[in-house]
Hints:
This protein is an alpha/beta fold and 184 residues long. It is built from 4 helices and 9 strands. The longest helix is centred in the first third of the chain and has 25 residues, at 7-31.
Amino acid sequence: MPPVEGHEQARDAHHAQQLQRAVDLKTQRAAHGVALGYIGRTLSPRSRRMRIISTFLPPETLAITSGRPTVVMAFDTLVDEKSHVVGITVGSMQGPDLADVLVSELGQAIIDRCTRHLAQNYPQAITVIAGVASVGNAVQRVRRVLAKAPPQSFVLLLCVDNKVYDAAFPALGVDFQSANMQPH
């Protein structure tokens, strides 16, 4: 089914809002001297203690942001003692390969950023593509996928819609202080 006109623009706007909220939260906490104490904590006391910490990959210039350095939802993620490259976006799968993923222009920028980082740092790594379909078990799904993914793999989390994305994102334990806007 072809995407509804304006749907990709809405998704791109949503991603931009998510990043702005993250930066605003970081700024508010820094202004009040509040530490980001929730990073890496287990999200459910019933679940196995699993430490997840995600740091933003350095920004790159993107055509969709008029060539300005841009931080996208692409991360170096530490899950206990395993490291992964993780991308999260709204999209869907039309087949078994990364080429079969349907995402917005910003979603494609996330995939491209992760694959470049992977090629530079983990050239023999595999790609794990995981769908996240419901709000109710989004956190558990993300945690399960990250726990089972082989070390040094690229994990692409494809959320079915913005609500699922919002529910899944906290499971990544993102260190918002790592959103450095200086390209490397």
